[in-house]
Fold:
Amino acid sequence: MDAHEIGSGQGSAAIVDELNRRIGERFREHPFRNGVNKENFAAVSADYLAMSIAFPFIQAGAIHATYKAALRAGGDTDKNAEITGAIGAYLVWDEVGGHKLTLESGNQGLLQLPATRRNYHAHWLRRDLRTILGKDVQPHRSAATTRYLDQLLDGLSDSRRNRNVAYMIGFECHAQEMIGALWDAVCASFDLPHDERLVYFWGHVGGHSPAEAVHVEMTRMMVAELVPPDRRDEFIELCLEGYALNFQWCEAITAGSIGKASEAGSGPPRTSSHLPARERIHTSYQDRGHHPLFGVEPPELGRNRWVSLQL
Ligand SMILES: [Fe+2]
Structure:
């Protein structure tokens, strides 16, 4: 490791620390925490599902957009395009279920990739929504969601001033808070315990992630490689801008859901829809004989406040 890398490594740790502090200071209460309830959950979750479906495709598109911008700039190689390409591809790979398959089954796991309904995180979410609500929820792209996803793609595709890095960090960091707040609201609204093992929620906020330290370090290294020390303040501002985009979308779909509860979540009700959510979950797991993801008792819940790419 040369002197430049050592210097930027220390600088990047300070950037990550400062960003965590500023996020905690500026975004105190997530809009889902007290804004989502039994009445509007179906409407909010229809927009949320649209985002979850779109995200891996948007991140993949951003990789290509960044590469094309680098080509237009005429350079031989572009460090931003390569690093955001590598980490963005990991995020896509994780979101389509590939990372989990190869961790669990090695190369043989690749043979399960076409079973997208089992692997995509958006399908885990559909399954949980069906269990909680007793019916299928159809994705809904409201005007706020369409605008948000367009702006997200724009941010993730813009390498100028490392805005794409900032939006990647802003998205992932906000996602952790967002899913935690939504899960807390769901538990309170549907009388579920916090150790209930719904597959999407448990997979994202339940238990301890053994790879958490690696994800935090991966984020720091990306910042170390790409953000010059004298651009620290500007970069932190861009991260906050990226975080705010996601946060404000959540505010918009929560506010927009009032009075729309009965419109969302169309689809044929399942036969168990008359049961309380808690009983539907247990009925659903008994049908399969075991939990689809976690064969063991859930470990303690814990929420990560560190800036980390891990969702
Ligand atoms: Fe995910």
Notes: Residues 70 and 78 are 6 Å apart (CA to CA).
